[in-house]
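Predict fold of Cytochrome P450; 386 aa.
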Amino acid sequence: MNAGKVFVYWLGTEPFLYIADADLLNKISKEVGAKRWGKPSVFRNDRDPMFGSGLVMVEGNDWVRHRHIVAPAFNPINLKALATNIVASTNKMIQRWIFQHNSGNPVIDVERDIVATAGEIIAVTSLGMDDHNAATQVFQKLRALQITLFNTNRYVGVPFGKYFKFFKTLEAKKLGKEIDELLLSIIQARMSNNSSKSKGSQQSDLLGLLLQENDWQKQLRDEIQQVLAQHKHVIDLAMLSGLTKMKWVMNEALRLYPPSPNVQRQARDDIHIEGLTVPKGTNMWIDVVGMHHDKELWGEDANEFKPERFMEDVNGGCKHKMGYLPFGFGGRMCVGRNLTFMEYKIVLTLVLSKFSFKLSPSYHHSPSIMLSLRPTHGLPLVLQPL
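Predicted 3D structure, encoded as tokens:
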């Protein structure tokens, strides 16, 4: 059954306007400034243990204040200072892979290790944490909280739904409180040491899945060698900006497997568009995956991995600029997107310089949504040192 690109559905007792129409989304976006977008209250309540009153969930003037505080951490000057830390964390991961391969096990769960390394990068660049055990503890709890919230989401919008999974709800709140306490202790320790560093953002994954293409591995490896030689083998922002084909690959990876497969919004005021009224308080579910795979926007090859579609067009040849939303849209677009690109390029540069890889026969393709899009069974790759 195909209900179309715009329709109303219910999540428990909560009505949602489903949107997978790029043109309608563009018209709505023009009418609504970032400050006037809200987040569905049903999600704010459900995900409070993880997001609290931070940038992701706040609205109005509070959102403006949070954004103003966070945004400077992601300017080019601050990002430049983070590159060395990202290189160091990635090299440690690569050394673990080499040791594992030399021990007779060439199959690596790349998704697991990339997430762990991203957590270490965040710990160092965001929180100035030198204690590896403390960093591991924080991100293990965050991962556990993510899984716990996902397991309770099936009752979102259902009256008294939190009581159907009462112990899971308590577990989520307990984990959220423990994470808050850990982070607060870290912040207090840093304040007492009178030190400060910039904030970070998680790196998206699933890229290894797409790079099973040996031809693209070779193209990227050749590009890396050429650009590194031009920059005296120093990995910095200037060097990374020269990795043109690598950017195509990431753009295509984010198109096929966007880390946030949907975007939720709530109208804080009535929205009027060409005779149509979206009432104040209306929840909206914007289907990013649906638009990224829409053949009317991308052509008959919409489901194929073709990085070259981004060769001459930052929107990959999409017929509508709102049809490609890997980091959201408008003023509430992901504030950490530039850091994500930098992390991705550094990690892939170092990995491709050391290994070739292919999918393990044990891999099962089963993307799942656990707040973000993740491979259900990990991403086992067979690595071969070069």
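DSSP finds 15 helices and twelve strands in the chain.
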